[in-house]
Design goal:
- By secondary structure, this protein is an alpha/beta fold.
- It has helices spanning 24-32, 49-60, 76-82, 93-102, 106-114, 125-128, 176-187; strands spanning 5-9, 38-42, 66-69, 86-88, 120-123, 157-159, 191-194, 198-203, 206-211, 215-218, 225-227.
- Strands 3-2-4-5-1-8-9 form a 7-stranded mixed beta sheet.
- A hairpin with a 6-residue loop joins strand 10 and strand 11 (225-227).
- It is globular and about 50 Å long.
- Keywords: Hydrolase, Protease, Serine protease.
- Belongs to the peptidase S51 family.
Length: 240
C-alpha cells in the first residue's frame, strides 16, 4: 500500500490571479516530486468537457505536464487504472458525483488513490467529492446522484469557498456557519472551511494547510477554531 497524496484546493480561481496561478508552485512541487508527467483530468462537473479540459491543458502544459481528458477515453475505468495522477475539477458537485457513479468510478478512484497512492488533485467540487460526503457543498442539487456518499479519501467534510458571515450585512437568511452547524448537529462529522486561496495537502497520515489565509474548523459540541497557513491538521485524519 502506498501513502495517499492529495492536494485539495478550495478553488481554482482567486481574485488577482489567472486559473490555478495562486497554487502554481505548490501544484508543480506536488506533481514533480511524484514524477508525474501526465495528468488525467476529470471535467464532469461542468457542461463543456472539451473547453474545460483545454483550459486545464493550457495551464498545466507550460508547467511541464501533459493533460488528458477522461471524457475522450473509450474506457474510463481503464483510463483511471492507468493514470499517473488524477485532477477532478470544479463546477457543480451534484452533477460531478452523479457522473462518477454513472461511470462506476467511485471504487476505482478510491482504490487507486488509497491503495496505490496515485496523486489526487481536487478543486472546489473535486475537493467536495474527495471527502466523506457532498452534504457541505455550496452548490444547488441540479442533478441527483444515487447517494451523497463521496470518495472518502479523508474522514471528514470540507466546505470549499468558505466565507465568514459579514457583520455589517442586512441579510437575514442563514449564514454559511449556520448551515455547516446544521450538518454537524445531524451527522456529528467535522467540517473544514477552506477559504479561497487555500488548500489542504495530505501526504500519508500528515495534513497541512497551505495558502495565505486561515481555515476554520467546525466540530460537534466544540467552538469553531481558526487555523493559520502551514498548520499541521493531521489530527483530522484520525476521525472515526
Amino acid at each position: 500500500m502506498s501513502p495517499r497524496s492529495l492536494f485539495l484546493l478550495s478553488s481554482s480561481r482567486v481574485h488577482g490571479y489567472e486559473f490555478l496561478e495562486h497554487a502554481k508552485e505548490h501544484l508543480k512541487e506536488f506533481l514533480t516530486k511524484r514524477n508525474v508527467k501526465t495528468v488525467l483530468f476529470v471535467p464532469y462537473a461542468q457542461n463543456d468537457y472539451n473547453k474545460y479540459t483545454e483550459l486545464v491543458e493550457n495551464t498545466l502544459s507550460p508547467w511541464g505536464f501533459k493533460v488528458e481528458g477522461l471524457h475522450v477515453k473509450q474506457n474510463p475505468i481503464q483510463a483511471v487504472l492507468q493514470a499517473e495522477a488524477l485532477f477532478i475539477g470544479g463546477g457543480n458537485t451534484f452533477v460531478l458525483l452523479k457522473a462518477l457513479y454513472d461511470e462506476n468510478l467511485i471504487p476505482i478512484i478510491r482504490e487507486r488513490v488509497l491503495q496505490k497512492g496515485i496523486p489526487y488533485i481536487g478543486s472546489s467540487a473535486g475537493t467536495n467529492v474527495a471527502t466523506l460526503s457532498i452534504h457541505t457543498t455550496n452548490d444547488m442539487p441540479v442533478a441527483f446522484p444515487p447517494t451523497f456518499d463521496a470518495l472518502r479519501l479523508v474522514p471528514f467534510n470540507i466546505n470549499p469557498h468558505y466565507l465568514e458571515p459579514d457583520a455589517a450585512t442586512r441579510h437575514k437568511g442563514e449564514t454559511r456557519d449556520e448551515r455547516i452547524n446544521e450538518f454537524i448537529e445531524y451527522h456529528k462529522k467535522p467540517v473544514l472551511g477552506l477559504r479561497e486561496g487555500t488548500a489542504l495537502l495530505v501526504e500519508g497520515d500528515k495534513a497541512v494547510l497551505v495558502g495565505d489565509r486561515n481555515a476554520k474548523l467546525f466540530m460537534a459540541n466544540k467552538e469553531q477554531v481558526e487555523f493559520a497557513p502551514n498548520t499541521d491538521l493531521s489530527f483530522l485524519l484520525n476521525q472515526s
